[in-house]
Amino acid sequence: MKRKAAGNYKAMKIKFVEAVHEIKSRDIAFVSLTSKKDSEVLVLPEGHKSISLGIGNKKDINRRRFILQSRKIISLAKQNKIRRLVINFSDFDMPHLKISAGEIAETLAINFEMANFEFILYKTPPDDGWGFVDELIIVSSDNEVKRGFRKGGIIGEGVNDCRILANSPGGIMTPRILAKKAIDSAKNTPVKVSILGTKELQKLKMGGVLAVSSGSQEEPKFIVLEYFAAGKEKPIVLIGKGVTFDSGGLNLKPTDSMNGMHTDMSGGASVLSTIMMAAKLKLKKNIVGLIPAVENMPSGSSYRPGDILKTMSGKTIEVLNTDAEGRIILSDALTYAKKYNPKLVVDIATLTGAAMIALGQRASAIFTKSDKLEQQFRDLGEKSGDYVWPLPLWDEYEADIQGTFGDIANTGKTRYGGAITAAMFLYQFAKDYPWVHIDIAPRMTAVDDEFLAKGASGAPVRLLIKLLESF
């Protein structure tokens, strides 16, 4: 018996009509909002189906609930094998949120697309096919609404592209293949891609990247993405941790902790997807993406606890634990960023389990010396749905990472405050420009009740796009 080909997710089609009577097909479901608490799928006399979404009092809906309820629509449709949906946009008018019609449309489109996605690339399709929603029909003649849906669709696809990269198995998404994905993604776009290999990294004296990759047969790749669409304006530099698989190195992780470590390059995936999305949206910005891509593996050539590494900055790192590798490769990337004279540098990394212990799985941790940037990122997190929460970066914490035989130790002196000491480590290489560190370990994978498929959540792509648009 011939095996069915593995599946592949496709984005929803979006169609606009000016009135409900223009819709003739019976193979379709209408979405309605009700003041009930429960939601249900009804079969109407005409043969149409209806998704009745119970939202309670509309005035009690805030931004957070609005995002979850929009995803719930798609979740109900998928459960009931409904492939085509009709949305009357006027039902979603919520003036108490003080959000424009275009922004409501954009938010709906992003979250519809995110909720529809599943990583099925290596799964055999079921006999009755996947339960994805294929088409959205929006009842609206408002051009602002149409633009919002189209833009949101692009962003939603970008988030899902990030999830595909992050979900890909470590044996398939190696540094070399991640670099090739960057090159392929940039074809027919204004994004310039440069890939630095071992020889180039040696010339740059990137001792951090070279050390972490030394235990693997896979050559490290330092991926540089440049999108310049704003003349001589100083660029925003986004740096993404690209550890395509993290075994812990010689400080080998326990089995349970090693599961899921193919997603340790989620920061790099978010940067790649964000840069490509900026190009598709034709943002008038200068943006640089830096992704140090490595495998952290144990072997006879691995770097060791006790090693002293000399970084591109000239500072030395005393290695106390080879499983604290992300900050080591980011140290070289933060130094490389200086060459662009950036107006802002943001690094994104699945850096510490300590951030997850502190915050749970609902928000990423952010660190910065700027109160203004901290507040801006918190506001953008609320608007985008990629929520962030600040942790301190006080000078006193520098004492916790001072090395005995090197300038800086790659772990703190105690087991406490690990997310903070990791951020303070990074700060040693980021003092020459405005800087924000986002520890996305808490948001690496989706939580059950947020109506997203299991696996990578795509954080913080939505926040980064909002940042690029507004900074």
Q: Secondary structure elements and their pairing?
A:
Elements: E1 13-17, E2 29-34, E3 40-43, E4 49-54, H1 63-79, E5 84-88, H2 101-116, E6 135-139, H3 143-167, H4 175-185, E7 192-196, H5 198-204, H6 207-213, E8 221-228, E9 236-240, E10 242-246, H7 255-258, H8 266-280, E11 286-296, E12 308-310, E13 316-318, H9 326-336, E14 344-349, H10 353-359, E15 364-367, H11 371-384, E16 388-390, E17 408-409, H12 418-427, E18 435-439, H13 461-470
Parallel strand pairs: 1-6, 2-4, 2-5, 5-6, 9-11, 9-14, 10-11, 13-17, 14-18, 15-16
Antiparallel strand pairs: 3-4, 7-8, 8-11, 12-13, 15-18
Structural descriptors:
471 residues, alpha/beta, elongated, Aminopeptidase, 18 strands, Leucine Aminopeptidase, subunit E, domain 1
Concise summary:
The longest helix is centred in the first third of the chain and has 25 residues.
Written overview of the protein:
It is a single chain. This protein has 471 residues and is an alpha/beta fold. It has two domains: 13-163, Leucine Aminopeptidase, subunit E, domain 1 (3-Layer(aba) Sandwich); 168-470, Aminopeptidase (3-Layer(aba) Sandwich), CATH 3.40.630.10. Helices cover 33% and strands 19% of the residues. It has helices spanning 63-79, 101-116, 143-167, 175-185, 198-204, 207-213, 255-258, 266-280, 326-336, 353-359, 371-384, 418-427, 461-470, and strands spanning 13-17, 29-34, 40-43, 49-54, 84-88, 135-139, 192-196, 221-228, 236-240, 242-246, 286-296, 308-310, 316-318, 344-349, 364-367, 388-390, 408-409, 435-439. The strands form three sheets. Strands 7, 8, 9, 10, 11, 14, 15, 16 and 18 form a nine-stranded mixed β-sheet that branches. The chain has a six-stranded mixed β-sheet with strand order 1-6-5-2-4-3, with helices on one face. A three-stranded mixed β-sheet has the order 12-13-17. Helix 11 links the parallel strand 15 and strand 16 (388-390).
